[in-house]
From TrEMBL:
Membrane-crossing residue ranges in chain numbering: none
Gene3D superfamilies: Nucleoside Triphosphate Pyrophosphohydrolase
Keyword list, A-Z: Hydrolase, Magnesium
Source organism (scientific name): Novimethylophilus kurashikiensis
Enzyme Commission identifier(s): 3.6.1.-
Enzyme class name: hydrolase
Subunit structure: Monomer.
Top-rank taxon: Bacteria
Family: Belongs to the Nudix hydrolase family. NudJ subfamily.
Any one GO molecular function term: thiamine diphosphate phosphatase activity
Name of encoding gene: nudJ
Domain Nudix hydrolase: 2-133
Protein name: Phosphatase NudJ
A Pfam entry, by short name: NUDIX
Amino acid sequence: MVWKPNVTVAAVIEHDGKFLLVEEETNEGVMFNQPAGHLEEGETLIEAAIREVQEETAYRFQPEALLGVYHWKHPRKDITYLRFAFIGKADGHDPAQSLDEGILRAVWLTPDEIRACADRHRSPQVLTCFEHYWAGQRFPLSVLTHL
């Protein structure tokens, strides 16, 4: 068997001091996450991030920067994730759109609320991404090359 990490994308979206998260059903209960999901065949990382935000929150996402690349091995599963986290703006909300299966709702939370529910984050990557964002970490989208 060949080992391959799961390539995922995530979006950190701020508006008026609050951040867009999704509350979702998981095998470990109801958890919070950034809008996030797997890279699909034939799409760029940026296209994947735009699609995932739309599917999970019903917002259009406009990526502006790369926040970082995060490597995490799940402690109870034989799964390794390689997450590309993007920063950008959301607009064009469609409240009539159905959200992805398992997504209970999209919710805007303050930094204090995000930190207070850390025990309900889908993975440690969630808070790490926010902490990097709050520290001012940013990389231009031009660091990504799609051939």
